[in-house]
Specification:
The complex is a heterodimer of chains A (about 260) and B (about 260). Chain A has about 260 residues and is an alpha/beta fold. Chain A has nine helices and ten strands. Chain A folds into two domains: about 5-85 and about 160-255, P-loop containing nucleotide triphosphate hydrolases (Rossmann fold), CATH 3.40.50.300; about 100-160. The longest helix of chain A has 18 residues, at about 175-195. Chain B has one domain. In chain B, about 85% of the residues lie in helices and about 0% in strands. Chain B has helices spanning about 5-35, 40-50, 55-80, 85-125, 125-135, 140-175, 180-190, 195-220, 225-255. The chains are: A alpha/beta (about 260), B mainly alpha (about 260). The interface of A and B includes residues 112 and 166 of A.
């Protein structure tokens, strides 16, 4: 790991109308590190991820990728930044109109201008990497189960061998066994690539398995950050309540106040 | 306290804001058409979906409209012993107005809704976000091919609609109303002017632009799951209809405003 963080957020704010979603996020993810952001629904996890990806522009603050300020990058500059990223979406977000192999090869063909035949070979290899046989490549995404869709989404995320991979709720909607399979695949694939990862999840089993470090987002701010092994002794009532999934605690009190 | 003036103001400002967003979307879409790369395979696919698949509905609409028009003009004209004007009025009405407008409205009903539903579903299932993360500009990949395809295809559809509409009038005129076939065709050709055909094609291209623009705009900005997609679909069709009728009026006034005949 080098000194320059792969991803760095400085005082990132984002509001929608009068609703303040991010209230000054400061976060740093080192190269090769796996950071997991935990937090309840509506705390701003997805908004933060979309700000880093450039899908939303922060109202205030800066976002750095590999030391470069990318907060307001557009067009070609944004495309260059995006070429460093891979992303596994919550619902996999596979393109309905394309067969599975073309979904996996999409970034290679459209983003990197690779020939279809070469991209197809890589797609088949990546599908095998996530435990899917080559004949799955011919199928349409609608013909796949939820677990298979996640695997294809993972294959697509790693196909162009990105430097940074984002995982948005990678185990949501899966049974516990399939969720564990996906977690194992994430750990293996990331280790193979040596990539930096930033994941957001509610699933503590997933967080414990894939994280080097964990941060908790609450009311648009990072309220705790530390090593995975330290989370059980965080000293934060909010973190304790969340990781143990208790209905009673400061988070419930906030809900009751609304 | 309810203030009707404030309500009118809010509605007016909301309408202005929507027009601003739509204009910005259209500007971005046009820039994405002009700048490379262009996904020509997608353009051809969209031309097939918009053009070939709309042929039956556009053809039938033109046929029945042309036939009914001939019948009405014959009945109306016979009061003034002017039933011989049937071929001329049919061709003028079909080529100048009914061919492009009815063709445009029928295609808008089919295509704007389909585009809004497809892009709306892609939006709510994060497929459009996925395009961005895969270094692909959604405007170039999704919007530009639809706009180009619609602008190129609508004039072709309208030419076919015009011919079928005139033939609908011809069939009723010769088979039911007893008009002479050769005379019918001669009067039709004599009445038709170059300006009529050009205005028809210009209208079709403009309507094609609005059909694809409204479908893409409402689909692209769809939110809130299935209900949001349904709302986007309805809004796309309604706004495409209004845009077509307004554009038709403006083009008609510009082209034929100072002209008698």
């Amino acid at each position: 790991m080098t000194d320059t963080p792969m991803i760095k957020l400085e005082g990132v704010h984002k509001s929608f109308g009068s609703k303040q979603v991010l209230k000054g996020i400061d976060l740093s993810v080192a190269k090769g590190e796996s950071m997991v952001i935990i937090g309840g629904s509506g705390t701003g996890k997805s908004v933060m991820l979309k700000c880093i990806l450039g899908l939303l522009t922060p109202d205030k603050g800066k976002i750095f990728v590999d030391g470069e300020d990318v907060t307001h990058h557009k067009g070609r500059a944004r495309k260059d930044v995006m070429s460093k990223f891979g992303m596994l979406f919550q619902g996999a977000a596979l393109f309905d109109s394309l067969p599975v192999w073309e979904n996996v090869a999409f970034g290679l063909i459209q983003g990197k201008g690779m020939k279809k035949t070469d991209a197809r070979e890589i797609a088949t290899e990546k599908l095998r990497r996530v435990g899917l046989s080559p004949d799955v490549g011919q199928l349409s995404p609608a013909e796949l189960s939820g677990g298979m869709q996640k695997r294809v989404g993972l294959a697509r995320a790693i196909a162009s061998e990105p430097e940074v991979i984002f995982f948005d709720e990678p185990t949501t909607g899966l049974d516990p066994i399939m969720a564990d399979v996906i977690n194992d695949l994430i750990v293996e694939c990331v280790k193979d690539l040596g990539a930096t990862t930033l994941s957001i999840t509610h699933d503590m089993a997933s967080a414990r398995k894939i994280a080097d470090r964990i941060a908790m987002l609450y009311h648009g701010q990072i309220i705790w950050e530390g090593a995975r092994t330290d989370i059980d002794s965080s000293g934060s009532d909010h973190v304790d309540q969340f990781i143990h999934g208790r209905a009673q605690g400061p988070i419930e009190m906030e809900i009751l106040k609304l | 306290m309810f203030n009707p003036l404030a309500l009118v103001g809010q509605v007016f400002l909301a309408a202005l804001a929507e027009i601003g967003r739509l204009s910005r979307f259209a500007g971005t879409a046009i820039i994405s058409i002009v700048l490379p790369p262009m996904y020509w395979r997608h353009v051809l696919k969209q031309m097939w979906l918009i053009g070939y698949n709309s042929l039956p509905v556009v053809g039938l609409t033109a046929l029945f409209t042309g036939a009914a028009l001939a019948q009405q003009i014959f009945v109306g004209g016979s009061r003034f012993n002017a039933s011989s004007v049937v071929p001329g009025v049919v061709v003028i009405a079909i080529v100048r107005e009914l061919g492009p407008v009815l063709g445009g409205l029928m295609v808008a009903g089919r295509v704007s809704s389909a585009m809004a539903a497809e892009l709306g579903t892609m939006r709510v299932t994060e497929q459009i976000d996925a395009l961005v993360t895969l270094s692909t500009d959604p405007f170039k990949y999704l919007v530009a091919p639809r706009l180009i395809a619609a602008v190129l295809t609508l004039p072709l559809l309208v030419i076919i609609a015009n011919i079928i509409g005139v033939m609908g009038g011809f069939l009723i005129g010769t088979e039911r109303l007893g008009l002479n076939a050769a005379t019918y065709l001669k009067v039709t050709v004599d009445f038709l002017e170059q300006t009529d055909v050009i205005s028809s094609l210009v209208k079709a291209a403009v309507f094609g632009f609005f059909i694809a623009l409204m479908g893409s705009y409402h689909g692209y900005h769809s939110r809130g799951g299935a209900q949001g997609v349904g709302k986007a679909t309805t809004n796309a069709v309604v706004s495409a209809f209004i845009a077509i009728l307004l554009a038709n009026l403006i083009i008609t006034v510009i082209v034929f405003g100072g002209k008698a005949g």
